[in-house]
Amino acid sequence: MTSFSLSNSPLRGIVPPMVTPLNPDGSLDTASTEKLIEHLIEGGVHGIFILGTTGEFSGLSYQTRKDLITQTCQQVGDRIPVLVGITDVSIEESIRLSEFSSAAGAYAVVAAPPFYANIDQEELARYYMQLADRISLPLFLYNMPSHTKLTIEVNTVTRLSSHQRIIGLKDSSAHAVYFQSLCHAFQDQPDFVLMVGPEEMMAETVLMGGFGGVCGGANLFPKLYVELYDAAAGRDFEKMRACQHAVMEISKNIYQVGQYKSSYMKGLKTSLSFLGLCQPHFAAPLFPFSETEVRELRTRFDRIISEVKVSV
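and the corresponding structure tokens:
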């Protein structure tokens, strides 16, 4: 079990949504998972979030999810918190995965709204209350409207924060006004953790009162994103501008190869393969880049390393 608990200070900093290294048959690539975890911890990240969108959770078998939870919690130990995504269309499966995560030693779980079902805010609030009542770990809400087609409205978040096990929210809406509204709503609840997903706006949300970022690019360059967070938290605007420039170059060059809606995921995981940190295998329905696209990405990746001078 980890040494982190609700009695500790609220989670702050960079918590990468870890890529799930896969073998060609969809099973967990345990050797690459070990290397990636150590890469993240050595880069100074403040936590690890597995089985999120970047972790391709929705395409993984429950066995692969459990294998990843077990290995990550055992390997990380008490070094940093491990957060586990338990999003599912079935509340029973989310509860089972939460309790499995608790037994493995996870710090907290993260749940987006159940996708597919057409529900309103009242049904959503009752769902989260029911989920929180039936699990033993702290719970982070996960606002991901582009994927779930539903926004967890600010009033719903404030209502849910009354539950002792609901301790924060990750916002991946890329909507600055929404996040600012959350910060305003929780100005008298300073321990309710508000983190942002899109790395391009992480620094500005920290200036707004946010707690940090769940930044996909930190899989590749954890030190850069930790430096950006530290600069924003410390109001070092010169350092922040330099790091922000690097982050935007990564976003422009790594996440925008090809004409896919999944270009972010393809670019990130393929770039990790360049560093020998995972194989470029994806959970269906995603599929790898073509040879031409891999060559284009490699050219862009090498340019970022040499010109932007991002350290691995």
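(Above: one complete record from the training split.) The longest strand covers residues 166-171.
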